[in-house]
Design goal:
Layout (H helix, E strand, L loop, with lengths): L3 E4 L6 H12 L4 E5 L5 H6 L2 E3 L5 H10 L4 E4 L5 H6 L1 H21 L5 E3 L2 E2 L23 H20 L2 E3 L1 E3 L1 E3 L12 H11 L2 E4 L7 E5 H13 L11 E2 L3 E3 L1 H11 L4 E4 L4 H6 L8 H7 L7 H17 L1
Parallel strand pairs: 1-2, 1-4, 2-3, 4-5, 5-7, 6-8, 8-12, 9-11, 10-14
Antiparallel strand pairs: 11-13
Helix pairs in contact: 1-8, 5-6, 7-9, 7-12, 9-12
Bound molecules: nicotinamide-adenine-dinucleotide and serine.
């Protein structure tokens, strides 16, 4: 029986991944932790505790006491916020990962780790269309540099110590249950909230800034598939490319206007524009499809319907 620790369970991904893993492994076997409170759904369905991933002593105590077999480490400072406090972001993103990898090296019962990477590992010298799994990687953001270094660390721990740590280069993730946490792709979440709340949105990226995106259900299913895959099927021990669907703010606006004809978008690029301009527009994820069966069910139209419905229902409660 698996005993799973989620670190960062209050966040955009953690809040949904925790519930999906509880359905599979049983509520009592999935321990949600974060620095801040989680949703009522998570608190009422299973164990939750405040835990700081930077506190390595409490972390090891927790893992041993609860006989943890898998960790999903989701705590990080995202791309936009990281540019505001570069050294602090570097410290949190790197030290937290090293705490987890060292734990996995030392504690025999802890068999598997999931740690997300990002499309931010790529930079302005990377081919932007059909970005291959193996390519030039010269990120120019603190977040991207920390994710690329993290990828190298997880492969190092696999090669040197046999630590089974797995990772996905997530594209921008879109969901309505929890609001997004300080990233460059957040416009594609905020736009739906503002469409319902205000009928208008000022976008911080230009209208033709195309980026790879994915609806949260697809990202959660991809994560679970990768983690359930037999290790001998995996040819990558750093992080897999996952592309999802690519669109720009103008295309997303057109989808929203089809459903809300009075919705108005305006554009005012900010410091996140050069970050977005340094990232790929379309990612080649054929290796993830081949190795562990990556599938995507949400296109831009289904995503738009689901976001608008979900946010409307959230506000009706
Ligand atoms: P988020 O900011 O919404 O959630 C992160 C959570 O970690 C927050 O709830 C925060 O309170 C918690 N946290 C921060 N510091 C902590 C600490 N010291 N100890 C314990 N918890 C702490 O982020 P997210 O969007 O859910 O992203 C999760 C992971 O996925 C991150 O590694 C991120 O880089 C990666 N990722 C996210 C996206 C995306 O579009 N959301 C895309 C690519 C990669
Ligand atoms: N969505 C994330 C961000 O913009 C990508 O990792 O930071």
């Amino acid at each position: 029986m698996e005993k799973i620790l989620i670190i960062g369970a209050s966040g955009q991904i953690g809040s949904e991944l925790t519930m999906a893993l509880r359905k599979i492994h049983g509520n009592e076997n999935v321990f949600a932790t974060d620095l801040k409170q989680v949703s009522v759904e998570i608190i009422e369905s299973g164990p939750f505790q405040i835990l700081d991933v930077m506190d390595d002593k409490r972390l090891i105590h927790f893992v041993i006491r609860h006989k943890i077999t898998q960790i999903y480490h989701l705590a990080a400072v995202l791309s936009g916020n990281a540019e505001k406090l570069p050294l602090q972001a570097w410290h949190i993103n790197m030290q937290s990962l090293l705490n987890i990898l060292d734990l996995a090296k030392e504690v025999d019962e802890l068999k598997k780790v999931f740690w997300p990477s990002s499309i931010a590992v790529f930079g302005p010298t990377t081919p932007r269309i059909d970005t291959p799994q193996l390519t030039v990687m010269e990120p120019n953001t603190v977040y991207g540099i920390s994710k690329l270094a993290g990828e190298r660390w997880i492969e190092y721990y696999y090669q040197k110590y046999g630590v089974d740590a797995r990772s996905i280069r997530y594209p921008g993730l879109i969901s309505y249950k929890t609001e997004a946490g300080g990233g460059t792709t957040d416009y594609a979440v905020e736009i739906f909230y503002d469409a319902i709340r205000k009928g208008k949105y000022e976008c911080f990226l230009s209208e033709n800034t195309k980026l790879p995106m994915m609806f949260m259900d697809d990202a959660v299913q991809a994560t679970i598939k990768l983690m359930e895959s037999p290790v001998d099927r995996l040819s990558i021990h750093s992080a897999y490319n996952v592309g999802g669907i690519s669109f720009d703010p103008k295309e997303l606006n057109e989808e929203i206007v089809k459903r809300l004809p009075d919705f108005k978008i305006s554009y005012k690029s900010d410091f996140r524009q050069p970050i977005a301009d340094s990232w790929p527009t379309i990612i080649d994820d054929s290796l993830a499809q081949k190795d562990w069966g990556l599938e995507t069910k949400f296109d831009i139209s289904k995503l738009t319907d689901t976001m608008l419905d979900g946010i409307r229902k959230k506000f009706e409660k």
